[in-house]
Amino acid sequence: MSSLSLSEKTHTRPGWPEIITALSLYMIGVVILGVWMLQIPDDQSILRINIGGAGNGLIGFLALFAAYALRIRNLRAFGFRRTERKWLLVAVFIGIAAFGGCFVIEGIYYHFITEINTQADFQTAAQGGPLSMFILLITGAFLTPLSEEFVFRGVIANALNRYGPWAGIVGSAAIFGVVHGFTVILLDAFMVGILVAYLFRKTGSIWPGVVVHIVYNGLNLLYYSTL
Question: Which residue ranges does the record assign to the CAAX prenyl protease 2/Lysostaphin resistance protein A-like domain (predicted)?
Answer without folding.
Answer: 132-218
